[in-house]
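#lab-general

N.A. 3:47 PM
ok so I finally got the sequence cleaned up, no stray characters, all 228 residues accounted for. can someone with queue access submit it? mine expired

B.Y. 3:52 PM
send it over

N.A. 3:53 PM
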Amino acid sequence: MLISMIEKWQKKTRRRLLGYGVSYMFPGINEWIFFTLKIVFALIVFLIISKAGIIIGIAASIAGFFIPDILMYISNSADNDAMLPDIESMYDIMKIQARAGVFIQDSLMDCYISTSNKRLKAAILELCNQIGTNKTMEEAVDNFSRKFSNRHIDVLCIVLTQAQSSGKTVQILSDMNEQINQLRHQRAKKDEGKLERKIEILELMIFVGILAIGVLAMGNEIFNMMKF
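B.Y. 4:20 PM
back already:
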């Protein structure tokens, strides 16, 4: 029973490390190294916080144990945002080339060339290599999908599999116009949000600068009055 639970935990952790990009960033990492890292974070937090009390330190160490998971989630979320333009471009390339009668495998190679995100680019190259060797399209796409925790890539993998099995690539990609529009809309909203945050930060900096000038001027005036 215990062995079965450990095996399930190992499998689940390996999939998370792969899907969240940790295995890409740190190729040598495995589930036990990651678990050890979590223990180290918990101990560090405990040693720092335990000065305020043992009970508080233990409670804080539990939170510290999950810091690597939080960092992993944040990193993957940032990667997913960065991949949006490339995923959108992949849809466009495959759709245009499908209309020209280009095979989906050849389209993927062009997608690799045009992709700028390093994590996605490396995964596409491996996908193309696996398709070109002894892997079936379904196996290669499944391996590609496992490297990400990204709903847009999940949908893209469904498109690749269906296009290959049905042979109706143009029709399937045409039906995905809504998905492409959602991608563009989501990217526009994120860009708009980033612009708004930059404006807010700029406004805050201006306000702080004006306030600092006012405080300095007032302080200088008070200092001059005290001299008399």
